[in-house]
């Protein structure tokens, strides 16, 4: 219940009690008043009337006496009148009394009095009658005798007065008693009312005071600036409850205000701290003019500011092909060191930060493996921060910091701001350093210029002198020009002679190679058959000899081929036939051909192609293959352990775009002075007879020439003992040129030679071939050794062999033997050469379907065309590679079979 209500109720109650009391008292006073009035009006009136009667009686007596005494006097009528009036008055009084007296005793007395007065009246009337008769004496005597009656009336009156007086006294007495009681009652009631009022007030005041004291205590306990103010719990539904509620709300508001004020103060303090540190660092950075001073002037100030246990500062350098990070200062365990460490942009968190410019935070570092922070010295940090140092959004450096605790946000803020500042500083320092360097350079240049201008003055003087001399010389030179013209003509003549000589040389080489190859062919085939050792009657020693013969023959053959190739190139007889060279084919060729060789030497063999390489290139595929084969066989030959790597990439070089074929090995390498020599003919690093590696010393010369023909070139980089990298640059050419294509199977002399070298025991496999078994072959050749060796091999695989010494004989045999399936035709024959014979055969209806494989020692491309024109189905060079020959025969015989099946 609210206090207002309570107070209203309390005080209304008191007022009500007082009102009842007052009403009660007023009632009592009123009744007493009435009683007193009655007393006064009733008793007093009665007494008065009685006294009036008594006085009236006396007056009547006196008048009567007068009348009696003074009978003849004029006043007699007046007296009688007065007596009559007096009696009337007495009777009136009696009547009044009769009306107001109620008490029986008093009524009885009044009746007595009434009777007495009636008698008295009669007496008076008698007397007066007597008097009127003139008998005065008699009247006097009657009066004298009956006067006593007069006394009786007085007595009765008086007794009645005394009765009334007694009643009055009694009434007064009783009034006084009740009056006393009412006074006492009133006093007691007032006291009780006052007590109740007092108690109610006390109860109300007490409870208000207690609660207010409670509020005061809580308010007193408020501490200035506290964010946790005490709350009032007295939240009853009354005015004090409302005050408490209001107080609580005020406390909440105060707390919020206090909190805001504290936060604001903290922010201001932090901002001050930040501004001061930044200003300090800014001042420091102003004093730095050299990147090497960053350490003592700046770095040593930052470390203690953020309480770091490790720190390193890197800046990005661009003085190499790729940008990298240079560590310019570092700090570990109270030691400031200035190590120059290079970190690549891919390396670790620092490198990553430099690349993407994002801050990195590594927490709880202790949980990471030890190696992670080994570079941080003995201190084991708890948190690592890596900041990019930015300038206009670009990373110019990286700051790495570690702490044993945790970096508070404020320190992080400071560092971020400081790093922005530092970016500008580094840029400024770099620019200043650059300017200083330029200034120094320009000073040096100035000095040089000055010296040069002096020198030029001197030279001018000399020039002037020389001019004079020149004028004299000019006269002589005219004469010399004439002489030179003569010399030029002579030289032209010589060139013609040289070209002729070169032609003779080439032709000589071609002829000699034919002459050399033919016997060599027999030698190789026979040596091969020897090695097969079919009869199993050779000793180990003999087999070894046969092997040596075979190997020596191969070397000789290689040399001859190389010489021939070089001669052809030098005399310009090599044609370039451009076609689409598929890079994919090239890669699989390289892998298939050289991976087994490398594996045999336990070398790792890697072939990689860059993604931007086109699918094909227009070039002479054969030549490219030849060059790469040479580079790769060298790489494998001169590498004992490690790896050989081929990398095909696209690159810009001097005049344009090239495809670079990089062949790198980890072999013996080539010394600087030998690097130029090796491209010359017959040049080998180790040319002694005791040398470790075989070879002719012609491979690179041929490759270099071939590369030149393809508008490319070859470079070499090598370190002795570490390895060599040969790079063949082939120009990227997308224009399609005339593509020569041949309907027959193309053979590559180089390829075949290498295969024979690598597979000396190839003949052993030939025996197992039975696709050719039973087929009839005609060999037309005038060299019996050749015929002999071929016959031996072909019979060994189950073929039926016929032979003719020249073309004429060959045609005769063909006409007599209708079962001949295929012809092997030598070209250079004494009587009727290969060309003519083939033309004859093609003319004959019966024979023209027989496939002819022309076999010649001439490897020139025009020889090949000549053969095809004359009617050859296919073409092979001597010495004959057996596997290739068998393959060719199979191709042509199967083709034939299929055709006949078709028919
Ligand atoms: P060869 O037939 O002797 O290998 P080359 O002309 O191909 O003839 O090479 C000439 C010489 O260059 C070699 O004898 C060898 O001394 C050196 N050479 C070539 N390639 C390499 C290589 N990859 N590593 C070391 N030396 C090499």
UniProtKB/TrEMBL annotation:
Membrane-protein topology: Multi-pass membrane protein
PROSITE patterns for the chain: HAMP (PS50885), HIS_KIN (PS50109), RESPONSE_REGULATORY (PS50110)
Annotated InterPro entries: CheY-like_superfamily, GAF, GAF-like_dom_sf, HAMP_dom, HATPase_C_sf, HATPase_dom, His_kinase_dom, HisK_dim/P_dom
Coiled-coil ranges from the UniProt annotation: 243-270, 435-494
Superkingdom of origin: Bacteria
TM spans (from-to): 6-29
GO molecular function terms attached to this record: ATP binding; phosphorelay sensor kinase activity
Gene Ontology cellular-component annotations: plasma membrane
Response regulatory domain location: 776-893
Domain Histidine kinase positions: 511-734
Family: In the N-terminal section; belongs to the phytochrome family.
Protein known as: Circadian input-output histidine kinase CikA
Taxonomic lineage from the root: Bacteria, Bacillati, Bacillota, Bacilli, Bacillales
């Amino acid at each position: 219940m609210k206090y207002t209500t309570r107070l209203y109720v309390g005080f209304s109650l008191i007022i009500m009690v007082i009102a009842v009391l007052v009403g009660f008292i007023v009632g009592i006073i009123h009744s007493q008043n009435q009683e007193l009035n009655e007393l006064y009006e009733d008793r007093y009136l009665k007494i008065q009337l009685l006294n009036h009667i008594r006085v009236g009686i006396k007056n009547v007596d006196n008048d009567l006496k007068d009348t009696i005494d003074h009978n003849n006097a004029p006043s007699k009528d007046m007296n009688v009148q007065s007596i009559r009036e007096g009696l009337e008055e007495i009777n009136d009084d009696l009547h009044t009394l009769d009306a107001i007296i109620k008490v029986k005793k008093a009524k009885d007395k009044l009746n007595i009095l009434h009777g007495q007065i009636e008698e008295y009246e009669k007496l008076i009337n008698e007397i007066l009658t007597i008097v009127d008769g003139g008998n005065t004496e008699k009247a006097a005597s009657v009066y004298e005798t009956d006067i006593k009656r007069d006394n009786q009336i007085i007595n009765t009156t008086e007794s009645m007065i005394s009765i009334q007086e007694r009643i009055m006294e009694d009434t007064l007495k009783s009034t006084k008693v009740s009056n006393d009681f009412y006074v006492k009652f009133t006093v007691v009631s007032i006291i009780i009312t006052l007590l109740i009022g007092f108690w109610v007030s006390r109860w109300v005041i007490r409870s208000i005071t207690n609660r207010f004291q409670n509020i005061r205590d809580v308010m007193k306990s408020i501490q200035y600036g506290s964010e946790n103010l005490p709350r009032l719990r007295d939240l009853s539904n009354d005015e004090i409850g409302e005050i408490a509620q209001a107080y609580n709300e005020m406390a909440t508001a105060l707390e919020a205000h206090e909190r805001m004020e504290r936060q604001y103060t903290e922010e201001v303090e932090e901002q001050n701290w930040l501004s001061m540190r930044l200003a300090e660092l800014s001042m420091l950075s102003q004093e730095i003019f050299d990147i090497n001073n960053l350490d003592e002037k700046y770095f040593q100030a930052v470390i203690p500011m953020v309480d770091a246990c490790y720190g390193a500062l890197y800046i990005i350098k661009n003085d190499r092909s790729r940008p990298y990070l240079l560590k310019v200062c570092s700090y570990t365990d109270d030691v400031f060191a200035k190590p120059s460490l290079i970190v690549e942009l891919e390396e670790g968190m620092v490198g990553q930060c430099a690349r993407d410019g994002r801050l990195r935070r590594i927490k709880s570092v202790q949980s990471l493996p030890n190696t992670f922070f080994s570079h941080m010295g003995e201190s084991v940090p708890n948190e690592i921060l890596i900041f990019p140092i930015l300038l206009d959004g670009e990373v110019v450096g990286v700051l790495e910091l570690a702490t044993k605790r945790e970096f508070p946000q404020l320190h992080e803020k400071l560092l971020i701001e400081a790093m922005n500042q530092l970016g500008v500083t580094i840029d400024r320092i770099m620019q200043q350093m650059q300017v200083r360097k330029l200034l120094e350079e320009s000073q040096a240049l100035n000095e040089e210029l000055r010296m040069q201008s002096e020198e030029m003055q001197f030279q001018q003087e000399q020039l002037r002198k020389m001019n004079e001399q020149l004028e004299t010389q000019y006269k002589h030179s005219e004469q010399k020009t004439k002489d030179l013209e003569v010399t030029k003509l002579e030289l032209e003549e010589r060139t013609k002679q040289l070209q002729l000589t070169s032609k003779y040389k080439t032709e000589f080489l071609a002829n000699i190679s034919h002459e050399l190859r033919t016997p060599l062919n027999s030698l190789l085939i026979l040596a091969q058959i020897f090695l097969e050792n079919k009869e199993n009657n050779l000793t180990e020693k003999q087999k070894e000899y046969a092997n040596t013969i075979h190997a020596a023959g191969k070397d000789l053959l290689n040399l001859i081929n190389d010489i021939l190739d070089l001669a052809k190139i030098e005399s310009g007889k090599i044609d370039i036939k451009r076609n689409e060279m598929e890079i994919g084919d090239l890669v699989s060729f390289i892998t298939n051909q050289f991976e087994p060789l490398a594996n045999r030497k336990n070398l790792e063999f890697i072939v990689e192609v860059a993604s931007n390489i086109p699918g094909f290139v227009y070039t002479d595929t054969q030549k490219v293959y030849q060059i790469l084969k040479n580079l790769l066989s060298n790489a494998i030959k001169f590498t004992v352990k490690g790896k050989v790597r081929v990398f095909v990439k696209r690159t810009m070089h001097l005049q344009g775009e090239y495809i670079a074929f990089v062949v790198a090995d980890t072999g013996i390498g080539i010394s600087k002075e030998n690097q130029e020599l090796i491209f010359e003919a017959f040049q080998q690093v180790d040319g002694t007879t005791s040398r470790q590696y075989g070879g002719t010393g012609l491979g690179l010369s041929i490759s270099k020439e071939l590369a030149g023909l393809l508008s490319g070139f070859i470079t070499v980089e090598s370190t002795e003992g570490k390895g060599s990298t040969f790079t063949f640059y082939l120009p990227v050419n997308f224009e399609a040129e005339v593509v020569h294509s041949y309907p027959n199977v193309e053979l590559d002399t180089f390829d075949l030679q290498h295969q024979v070298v690598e597979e000396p025991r190839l003949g052993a496999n030939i025996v197992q071939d039975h696709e050719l078994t039973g087929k009839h072959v005609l060999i037309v050749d005038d060299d019996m050794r050749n015929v002999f060796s071929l016959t031996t091999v072909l019979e060994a695989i189950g073929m039926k062999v016929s032979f003719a010494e020249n073309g004429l004989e060959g045609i005769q045999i063909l006409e007599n033997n209708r079962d001949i399936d295929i012809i092997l035709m030598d070209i250079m024959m004494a009587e009727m050469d290969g060309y003519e014979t083939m033309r004859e055969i093609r003319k004959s209806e019966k024979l023209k379907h027989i496939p002819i494989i022309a076999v010649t020692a001439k490897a020139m491309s025009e020889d090949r065309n000549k053969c095809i024109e004359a009617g050859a189905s296919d073409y092979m060079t001597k010495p004959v590679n057996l596997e290739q020959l068998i393959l060719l025969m199979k191709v042509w015989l199967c083709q034939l079979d299929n055709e006949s099946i078709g028919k």
